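Tutorial handout. Part one gives the primary structure; part two gives the three-dimensional structure as tokens.
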Amino acid sequence: MFFAMMTHKLLYIFLVFTAAMQGAFLQAQTKKAFWVVSTEQAQWIKTNVRTAFFDINDATADVEILLNRKQQTILGWGGCFNELGWDALNVLPRERRDSVLNLFFGAKEGLKYNLCRMPIGASDYARNWYSLNESPGDFTMQQFSLKRDEEALLPYIKAAKAINPTLQVWGSAWSPPSWMKTNGHYACFADKVNDLQPDKNVPKGQNQLIQTPEYLKAYALYLEKYVKAYTQKGVPISAIHVQNEPFACQNFPSCVWQASAMANFVSNYLGPKFKQSGLNTGIWYGTINNGDIKVFDTVLQNKAANKYISGVGVQWDGKNAVATLHQKYPSLKLMQTETECGNGTFDWKAANYTFGLMKHYFNNGVSAYIYWNMVLNETGKSQWGWKQNAQVVVNSKTKAVLFTPEYYLFKHFSHYIPAGSVKLATNGAFTDILAFETPSHQKVLVMANTSPLSKQVVIKINKQKLQVNLQANSFNTIIL
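Part two.
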């Protein structure tokens, strides 16, 4: 009996000591939590823990989760379908290919993507240039065709939708048909990677799409036909973003527009065309790569255009305007439409940078976050020479599949934060944290420690506090 009593006493002392080492003082309450950690050396390590919460006797905390300050509702997560991604996947046996896709779109594992982007015609990660109608002067779109898309984009999207039938797809054009443009070419400036002649470079400040009613009407018809054709193929298009990066003159498929021209196109051509056709496809003012708030005001304060606008999509330099945009138009839906793609390093540094972007965008009202190329081969290289990152890399020679740090970073968010979740405000000196409440009322905390040293963080939730130890160079998801 004495031995049993001593054993129980020692066990009690050990439990109290363990709690103290985790930041406990007295009056600790243990609650079940689920914690996932990823470091550069080991990704996605799961643990069920009994987490100690402590009554707060003072205001000391590194960060407070403000449960009563609910912010934007999350629309979803996704990436972009591109031809080179499908080509990379198809070096794998079909069973292995579908297994990789399941880790993007499956309901139980992986990223659980629900909202993805696609190009209308060629992006810079197409096999080469094409549009859905390269027949000059075909203003009635008699030669419009999805023949090229049936080779790669449609099979890629349908393979994803076979896994997640509720997947929403939205589209944006990198370039209209080349014959609709002032220089008659898919690119904006001459370079060794294209066949544009230098005398056909587009001057700064010019609209590259021909701005006469005949061409604008034809382009609205082109986009209407795209929506209808994809719907007939079993892929409804949830939204159109007017132009990919309209303020970037590129050596690959691109088209520069002025904001006033986009306002005119939406208000007098695209909006009325979609309304006349009874399309419920949203029209977003995106994907805007400009940090000047005037670029947004020009469209959003134009009543004729704004009545057709469902939301605003921002990427790249658009991040410099998103804070002002959200403050000025607090009820406006905002989407981050293309996370910055890096330079094909596929490394932890790229993931750390992307976490910083995600934190910036979500703290400034964004409701959806879209990655760029989900899958690429080992080169990461486009047909126009830019080497970029991806979430999954398929080696075209060995057929090895690598899930990169950015894959796991996104999983720390999208796996546990479904559409319909609400972002919660936070306050305190520790800022590498984003907090959400799911539709089932779970609290999900996503934290990063970008330091080479471990870090203890005290989190205040209501009238209790929780102390956690974040491993060096780690991403963490804690579900309460």
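Part three, for discussion. The chain has two domains: 32-71+424-479, 76-416. The chain has eleven helices and 20 strands.
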